[in-house]
Fold this protein.
Amino acid sequence: MARAANEVSSQLSIESNDIFERNGYCLIKSRAQYIQNPAQVVRIAINMPTGSFVYDQPASRVIFGAGSLNRVAEEVNKLGATRAIVLSTPEQLGQASDVAQRLGALAAGVYPEAVMHVPIETARAAREEARRLQADCCVAVGGGSTIGLGKAIALESSLPILAIPTTYAGSEMTPIYGLTEAGVKKTGRDRRVLPKTVIYDPELTLTLPAGISGTSAMNAIAHCVEALYAYDGNPIISLMAAEGIRALSRSAPLVVNEPGNLAARADALYGAWLAGTALGAAAMGVHHKLCHTLGGTFNLPHAEVHTVILPHATAFNRDAAPEAMRAIAEALGARDAAAGIYDLAVRLHAPVSLRELGMPQTGIEQAARLATQAPYRNPREVEYDGIVKLLSNAWHGVRPA
Ligand code: NAD
């Protein structure tokens, strides 16, 4: 076995201390493929399943591809439903009406009242409307706000959700819901809110403006990054997360520069699917905690905050999660994970500073206090001074060194 390790080391120019042996295999850190060496098959692995883990991923039925919206009626039928309430934001009423038309008699009504962060009053009104219409399923056409409204209905009624995502936020793949009451957003996990069926039709994303497309893709990449260093991650989710970063980072620049590029739109939606799955399966860390704190306290826009914070949260965890950093950098095709993420945001013409988003500089210390009061579990300890520095770098928009 030592001979095999030496051969692999010299053939692939890999440091020999990056190679180790287990169960008759010669293993190389931070890769995800099999290779052949003259002596035997050598497995090259990422995020090695050397410890124990729980893989608990409730599956949704996924219909993917341009034109798949044509199958919406068939899919509502498959759920055994006959009276769908079709949800959207006011801005996406046109898309919701089109879906209702395709559903014909299966549509009980359209409710275009979704708004960001699901205020409890909106949730209550939507639940009431679902009852009034005697709906037996929710069809949510839109981004995280609309799917979030479907989840608020399902949480109370257990109605099945058919989600038709039109952004890259990934909510359609998670059992996570959020409700905002008296200005405070509370989130939770409940399997009842996980959509039963998801239709990914890239044609519906062609109208997503370039600016929102770029930050939405960065929001999805953030889910992948945190899944790669989550304390409860596992090798399967790591593969999905790395592939999500790969798909989103290659497609997003194309989407932003050519919003009508259907192939790039499909690739980005594929990345969003992987990212949502990763978010649903693994715990969030310092990045998501900071985004929730900043969004709630300073009313900053959701996807833009993710875009600005992600390079700095990644740099914050650099030394504490080296394996994840290697996987992220490799997926981005960059030398350094944090700098690679920052450079991608610049290529997407996305905001890179909290200053641009309108956050007052005097808010940094308040945000750091709030974010360190009840931090999410994170590879590196989330302490006040480190978070002040992170936020200060993010406020100025400096490229992580
Ligand atoms: P969004 O749903 O608020 O949409 C942003 C705007 O873009 C809206 O005006 C919407 O109508 C419009 N839009 C969406 N798709 C469009 C399209 N194809 N064409 C034209 N306009 C379109 O934005 P989002 O970023 O998808 O969702 C953000 C919300 O989702 C936040 O509240 C966030 O907390 C939540 N979220 C939840 C989860 C979860 O797992 N529960 C995951 C991610 C995000």
Summary: Residues 235-257 form the longest helix (23 residues). The chain has a mean pLDDT of 91. The radius of gyration is 22 Å. The chain is about 50% helix and 15% strand.
